[in-house]
Amino acid sequence: MEPTIAAGLASSALLLSNLASILLASSRLRRRRVIAPPAAGTQPVSIIVPLRGVEPFAQETLQRAFSLDWPRYELIFCVAHAEDPVVRLVNAAIARYPKVPARLLIGDDRISANPKLNNCVKGWQAARHDWVVLADSNVLMPRDYVQQLMAAWRADTGLVCSTPIGSRPDGFWAEVECAFLNTLQARWQYAGEALGLGFAQGKSMLWNKPMLDANGGIQALAAEIAEDAAATKLVNSLGLRVNLVASPFEQPLGQRSRAEIWSRQARWARLRRVTFPLFFAPEILTGAAMALLLALIAAAGAGVSLPGTALCVLAIAYLPECLLASAKGWYLSPRSVTAMIARDLMLPAIWARAWFGGAVEWRGNAMTIRTKAMTELEELA
């Protein structure tokens, strides 16, 4: 087969897979709708929220946590150090909402190299109820937060999660983060679920506590550097499924810088590369960059207009993404396509960076991302 034809066919295949992923994700996603408050006889729930530092929307996310429709729930806030400035905000929120059972636990249980998981241990041990939600502090919980999670639980479910959907971006680079989170990462995660490949996402995780306690407890999530990767493997090993909520929850972004996005996306990419290398390897083919490059090679060989080819490829790649965001009520603006292009220009470099080791930073904590084989070799040395 001639190189020109091969490049054209490869570009077409990538664009078709991009469209197929959007259609698959769309089949699993629902536009945001409110679920009615449940009856009084529902199961009580413990919600564990690890915190570190004061984030831009901290006041609002705290207020939302205390305003859920679920009849019986407790909030357990976890902080590693008593001098953390977020302690004052949490104590003030607990005082403002005395009708909601809430506690602030302080301490650092070093069970892993994952500071977030270490922060959650004391909350898990203190949880009073059989249903436990591990919720990141920057999740903007809707009033029906627990209903949405519970609605996704099935007889064969081991874990229910929600991907973060970026909202309220302030500035261009925050819009680039929306393009990463929403129509790329969330889209592929829901497409995977549609194909029976459910992957956990640590932003919101609903666990049945007796089930996890019977299989190693929260300490079992220290088996991998990322607790959501460990959760995925544990649930799959039990013959159960990871399910995603029908309408994922918002994460308000505010301002973002290019350096922040690079650091965060490179960290997540390296975690995926270490924990799921076979699924990570093809990520270089996602986005429009490779499809565009191959299409331009084919166009040059066939004597077709390069600008015209580029416009066609970009339209085929980004119009369905915009339609997905619009259909599901996600953030969309006149700059969204430009943000998607910036994202896809970054993707190959992020993918390449993920194959190199070294330390990364997570909220001031240095983390060295390594495979189990690397750790075992170090222990034998």
Can you give a write-up of this model?
- This protein has 381 residues and is α/β, with parallel strands linked by helices.
- The chain folds into 2 domains: 117 residues, no CATH class; 225 residues, Alpha-Beta Complex (Spore Coat Polysaccharide Biosynthesis Protein SpsA, Chain A).
- It is built from 14 helices and 11 strands.
- Strands 3-2-1-4-7-5-8 form a 7-stranded mixed sheet, with helices on both faces.
- Strand 10 and strand 11 form a beta hairpin.
- Helix 1 runs parallel beside helix 12, helix 9 packs across helix 13 and helix 11 packs antiparallel against helix 12.
- The radius of gyration is 22 Å and the shape is elongated.
What is the fold-level CATH name, i.e. the topology of the largest domain? Answer: Spore Coat Polysaccharide Biosynthesis Protein SpsA, Chain A
In percent, how helical is the residue content?
Answer: 40-55%
What is the CATH architecture annotation of the largest domain?
Answer: Alpha-Beta Complex
Q: Which strand order spans the largest sheet, edge to edge or round the barrel? A: 3-2-1-4-7-5-8
What is the CATH homology-level superfamily of the largest domain? Spore Coat Polysaccharide Biosynthesis Protein SpsA, Chain A
Task: Find the count of extended strands (DSSP E, 2+ residues).
Answer: 11
How many alpha or pi helices?
A: 14
Gross geometry:
elongated
**Amino-to-carboxy terminus distance:** 50 Å
What percent of residues are in strands?
A: 15-25%
| CATH class placement of the largest domain | Alpha Beta
Pairing-aware structural class of the strands and helices? alpha/beta
* Element string (H = helix, E = strand): HEHEHEHEHEEHEHHEEHHHHHEEH
Low-confidence blocks of residues: 372-381
Largest sheet: 7 strands, mixed
Q: Which whole number gives the mean pLDDT?
A: 91
Question: Number of domains in the coordinates?
Answer: 2
Radius of gyration: 22 Å
